TrEMBL record:
Family note: Belongs to the peptidase M14 family.
Protein's name in the database: M14 family metallocarboxypeptidase
Active site: E270 (proton donor/acceptor)
Lineage of producing organism: Bacteria, Pseudomonadati, Pseudomonadota, Gammaproteobacteria, Alteromonadales
CDD domains per UniProt: M14_REP34-like
Biological source species: Pseudobowmanella zhangzhouensis
Domain Peptidase M14 residues, every copy: 26-301
Length: 301
């Protein structure tokens, strides 16, 4: 599948990256759709600005919600959304959890919610940042992505261990129509068109798998939306199915957001918004159900 920028088989240089950037357009408003939501958060959350993206600091301030009061004796749970800005329900699922459900858990956990790590990507409906860097492959020291570096620095500065981490994502039809072809063009490689799974699934950490935790997430989400089946090879997006709706990745090695926190319990959710039976609200509800299912499991350990 060809891509309109670059020469097949040759990785992009700065000229091609600039061509790609020039082609991007603002399609929705981070300030109106995300930042405005922070003004109505319950009083048990502090809204803290932890930085701003250097592309346009005034337009793209970054916020994290910190539960208040903070209890040093409680385990800390991190929720991240919008690492890939185009994955809409990750952003609004994090906001909905904070607004509607988080209060039920504050006697058991400290909560940190970073609803939109990539606001430029949110506005342009993009997987990458303006430098054609994928933030969700950039969670490592001296990260080239400010979206990743600023969050890692913020969490480190808090001086707390993360007990559980919910990283909210989507798998969309545009992964095959736009983002994987763009990736192949950028890197001068061949694009493999993967089957897009029809339904919800999660990604566990292959270095520290927690199958019972993942199963609890799947069981909770199954009450809200359908779970993705494996393809004819027994895989989801090229990875073997470990159990219903669960695949494994080496998260830290791949530089994924779910790997930097070093939490014992980590899940990366993947909602399918392009399903014929999905709606935007259904996708948001699935994200909230995933968090609740995981937290309820941890409460019963």
């Amino acid at each position: 599948m060809s891509y309109p920028i670059g020469t097949p088989g040759t990785a992009w240089g700065e000229t091609e990256k600039q061509q790609w950037l020039t082609a991007q357009q603002i399609k929705r408003s981070y300030q109106q759709e995300v930042v405005s939501e922070l003004q109505s958060m319950p009083a048990h959350f502090e809204v803290i600005q932890y930085g701003a993206l250097p592309y346009d600091a005034a337009r793209y301030p970054l916020f994290i919600l910190k539960s208040h009061p903070w209890h040093a004796e409680l385990p800390t749970v991190l929720v991240t959304g919008g690492v890939h800005g185009y994955e809409t329900s990750g952003v609004h699922g994090a906001l909905a959890f904070a607004r509607l459900a988080a209060g039920e858990y504050l006697s058991h956990f400290n909560l940190l919610v970073a609803p939109c790590l990539s606001p430029w990507g949110y506005e342009t409906i993009n997987r990458w940042n303006p430098m054609a860097v994928d933030p969700n492959r950039s969670f490592y020291p001296n990260s080239p992505a400010p979206e990743a570096a600023l969050l890692m620095n913020t969490v480190q500065a808090l001086g707390v261990s993360i007990y559980a981490h919910f990283d909210l994502h989507e798998t969309t039809d545009t992964d095959n129509s736009e983002f994987r072809p763009a990736l192949a063009a950028r890197d001068g490689t061949v694009h493999d068109n993967w089957n897009i799974p029809d339904g919800f699934y999660v990604v566990d950490d292959s270095v520290n798998p927690q199958p019972a935790f993942q199963a609890a997430v799947i069981q909770a989400v199954e009450k809200v939306t359908h779970i993705a089946p494996a393809d004819e090879n027994g895989e989801i997006i090229g990875s073997p199915l470990e159990q219903k709706g669960v695949i494994n990745y080496a998260k830290a090695r791949l530089g994924l957001c779910g790997g930097f926190s070093q939490a014992n319990y980590v899940t990366t959710t993947e909602v399918y918004p392009d399903s014929a039976s999905a709606t935007p609200q259904n996708c948001i509800d699935a994200q909230v159900a995933a968090i609740r299912g995981g937290l309820d499991y941890l409460l019963n350990l």
